[in-house]
């Protein structure tokens, strides 16, 4: 959805959802495309337990990243938002609401997100 405000083109928010069974657990993904970035929620139940944001900087090759809310000892949202910001060159908000009990799960979840990025880049 695109509209014009004061002569400037403004993209509306679009939503894209997908799910996948990963290591015997159904993982849900919710993407909201924003103007200049996107919000990604990853989880198995409807909980917003943390929120991180990352964006590119002209001063460093690694995107800037901060945890907006949640437990600072859980770095999954921060790390994922940073890697996605680097890959997409966009501002990225991430909420990662899966248990950190299995590092294989995190890797498979990230690979599924990258696959979706390749299949449907228009949603990111």
Automatic annotation (TrEMBL):
Name of the protein described by the UniProt record: Proteasome assembly chaperone 4
GO terms classed as biological process: proteasome assembly
Gene Ontology, cellular component aspect: proteasome complex
Matching Pfam families: PAC4
Higher taxonomy: Eukaryota, Metazoa, Chordata, Craniata, Vertebrata
Keywords: Proteasome
UniProt superkingdom: Eukaryota
InterPro entries: PAC4
